[in-house]
Amino acid sequence: MQRVRKIVGLAPLAGFTESAFRRLARELGADFTWTELISGDFILSRGINHPQFHIFFEERPLRFQLQGSKTKNLVEAAQKVLYSLKPEGLDLNAGCPARKVIKTGAGAALLTNLPLLFEIAKNLAEIAHSFGSNFSVKFRLGFAEDELEKITETLLKAGVDILALHPRTASQGFSGRARWERIRDLVKMVGGEVLVLGSGDITCLSDLERFFKNTKAHGALIGRAALKRPWIFYEWKQKHEINFSLKERLELLRRLESYLKAYRSSEEVLKTLKLWIPKFLKGLPGKRKILPLVLKASTLSDFWQALHLLASSTDAKYK
User: Fold this and answer.
1) What are phi and psi of 224, to 5 degrees?
2) Mean pLDDT (whole number) for 2-29
3) What is the DSSP letter of 113?
4) Is the dihedral of CA 284, 290, 291, 294 positive or negative?
5) How do 62-67 and 89-94 pair as beta strands?
6) By C-alpha distance, which of 125, 220, 202 is closest to 164?
7) How many CB atoms lie within 10 A of CB 3?
8) How many Å apart are CA 7 and CA 125, to the nearest integer?
9) 223 and 11 in contact (C-beta within 8 Å)?
10) I need a surface site. Which of 47, 68, 108, 225 has the fewest CB within 10 A?
11) Residue closest to 204 by CA, chosen among 180, 166, 231
12) How many whole angstroms separate alpha carbon 253 and alpha carbon 280?
């Protein structure tokens, strides 16, 4: 990652940022991608022979995100990942507010135990560096209260290379406004010692431009908005907004399907496409008419036949 230009990458999103979408995001201009959070314990019990661990050259540079609360297990899992998958970066999730993650002491729960956060981060930084990868922590302002200064001091002492901040507390979830001014505060705090990436409330190109102007961050992460507008990375490169037609969006969905087929069964591909189609059609007229019929499809052939028939019947609306 370079300090000279502003970089924009795909944020980690559970259930979505698997290999296929990472490849599509890179193809559309994302500077880097990020895996969804993956439990260190899962890696130790199941190994890495699983669809979540498929990585292709086209989706690199890649950051691999681990979550957990047991230092020894996380280090062992990191060794397996770094040795076998060779990601460009290793990341610790210290920001996920999901209850099932929090109750294990992982994710944003680590922000309530800074000595443990320091221990885990220090050990993961050392193992990442020994494999030639950099190390980051993706985190929030705090769990229930803003404790950015304390958390930042802890992570800098642990030897992190990149700080990725979502400027809300874990208790907020995704409610309220992302406090971009705290990302700017973080940039001032680190004084160029590490790279600062930020995320939150970036939904379009104009948001992205305002984000960099207001935060002075080295890079931005786009998550939920990229699910509905994966071409936002292309817009950033071109410096102007682009409205994709239905035909163009379906072409993206076709590419996503081809990438999924490289490592998933037809049944799994269909299930995944059904998750994506509501997002790919976001903002287009006629969506309510299209979705129920498409989602009833029992095969990939039926899925595409329904889409093309409905697209042709409403073609005038989508041009």
Assistant:
1) -60, -35
2) 89
3) -
4) negative
5) parallel
6) 220
7) 10
8) 22
9) yes
10) 47
11) 231
12) 8
- Is 96 a known active-site residue? yes
Q: Is residue 218 within 8 Å of residue 6, measured between CB atoms?
A: yes
Contacts of 254 (CB under 8 A, 6+ apart): none
State both tokens at 85: 């998958």
Name residue, tokens 């699983």: 50
Strands 62-67, 38-39: pairing kind: parallel
- State the catalytic residue, choosing from 62, 81, 96, 108: 96
Predicted confidence (pLDDT) per residue in 82-135, tens digit: 999 999 999 999 999 999 999 999 999 999 999 999 999 999 999 999 999 999
pLDDT of residue 316: 41
Domains annotated on the chain, with CATH: 7-238 (3.20.20.70), 246-318 (1.20.120)
Residue whose entry in the numeric block shows the structure tokens 């936002």: 232
Residue carrying structure tokens 């940039």: 187
List, in order, residues 6 or more apart from 79 with CB less than 8 Å away.
127
- DSSP state, residue 87: -
- Asked whether the beta carbons of 4 and 35 are under 8 A apart, the reply is no
Q: Nearest Cα to 148, choosing from 110, 117, 182? A: 182
Interatomic CA distance for residues 226 and 93, integer angstroms = 20
**Token pair of 289, please?**
């008419």
pLDDT digits (tens, 9 = 90+) for 27-68: 999 999 999 999 999 999 988 888 778 999 999 999 999 999
Please state at what angle helix 114-130 crosses helix 71-84, rounded to 10 degrees: 20
DSSP codes joined into one string, 25-83 = HHHTT-S-EEPPPEEHHHHHHH-S-SGGG---GGG-SEEEEEE-S-HHHHHHHHHHHHH
The model's pTM is: 0.91
DSSP state of 163: E
DSSP label of 166: E
Q: Are 96 and 108 in contact (CB under 8 A)?
A: yes
Q: Please provide residue 140's backbone torsions phi and psi, each rounded to the nearest 5 degrees.
A: -115, 175
